[in-house]
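Quick one, tokens below. Sequence please?
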């Protein structure tokens, strides 16, 4: 059985940076808190929690020590709240997410109605919305567009990890209604490359494996994208989730990982596949 992976796999730059900043904070020995998971990966979350990172539901809970701001970022109102506390702040907001926040603010200041293509409930989108004075439209697919809500002058930005195909489809729908359109392509380059690699692999392999947490937004999107090109696509979190029966008669397998899936998990999957292949 042939095992194919993209040349670059494993965590993206933003996740690696956030983990490094958090580990540095933990090594200082003071209590460290985070508002939710640092990144959506159970292996990383477990390791950081074992080293002393405490997950909190609201930043109001932090009274001392260090607060880690996660890679998805926060709104200026939340930032002002934490700045007012006498605590150390480690800002692990991914610089690419920060660019999306700045882009949304700028297009609003230029007089465009801001339309964000992404998941309303995602922390990154909540953070971006917090940077705006007016209400923005958030849609995750063209089906969610209500033409009566679109103005003539529309500025579009995208959740950094959203599906490129869905973003294109939304832009096409907006073009049917609005006359003056500005697009800032805020999809992260790492995600773009991962999605391209996923399509290439899904098209040429007998089975496609997407490795990553079931609650990781970018991993779920990779799975859906692969399924479009290869019905025989599965998503797993760990090598142990692989069922050897699935590989009967399969000649080639493609592996792709989400942006928060560490290299080590991909290596474990490859190792298990090699052993399945020998049987
Ligand atoms: S996927 Fe891109 S935007 Fe998201 S954390 Fe990684 S580098 Fe940053």
């Amino acid at each position: 059985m042939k095992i194919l992976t993209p040349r670059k796999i494993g965590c993206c730059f933003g996740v690696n940076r956030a983990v490094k900043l958090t580990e540095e904070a933990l090594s200082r020995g003071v209590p460290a808190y985070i508002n939710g998971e640092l990144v959506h990966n159970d292996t990383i979350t477990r390791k950081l929690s074992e080293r002393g990172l405490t997950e909190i539901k609201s930043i109001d809970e932090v009274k001392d020590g260090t607060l880690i701001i996660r890679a998805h970022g926060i709104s200026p109102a939340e930032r002002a709240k934490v700045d007012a506390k006498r605590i150390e702040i480690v800002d692990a907001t991914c610089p690419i997410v920060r660019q999306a926040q700045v882009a949304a603010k700028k297009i609003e200041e230029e007089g465009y109605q801001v339309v964000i293509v992404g998941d309303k409930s995602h922390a990154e989108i909540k953070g971006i919305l917090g940077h705006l004075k007016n209400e923005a439209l958030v849609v995750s697919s063209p089906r969610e567009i209500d033409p009566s809500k679109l103005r003539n002058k529309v500025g579009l930005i995208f959740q950094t990890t959203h599906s490129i195909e869905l973003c294109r489809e939304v832009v096409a729908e907006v073009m049917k209604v609005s006359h003056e359109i500005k697009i800032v392509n805020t999809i992260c380059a790492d995600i773009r490359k991962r999605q391209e690699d996923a399509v290439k692999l899904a098209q040429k392999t007998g089975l496609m494996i997407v490795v990553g947490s079931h609650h990781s937004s970018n991993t779920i999107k990779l799975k859906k994208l692969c399924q479009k090109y290869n019905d025989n696509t599965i998503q797993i979190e760990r090598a142990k989730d692989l069922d050897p029966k699935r590989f009967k008669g399969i000649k080639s397998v493609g592996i792709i990982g989400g942006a928060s899936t560490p290299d080590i998990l991909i290596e474990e999957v490859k190792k298990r596949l090699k052993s399945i292949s020998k049987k």
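The chain is about 40% helix and 20% strand. The two ends are 11 Å apart (CA to CA).
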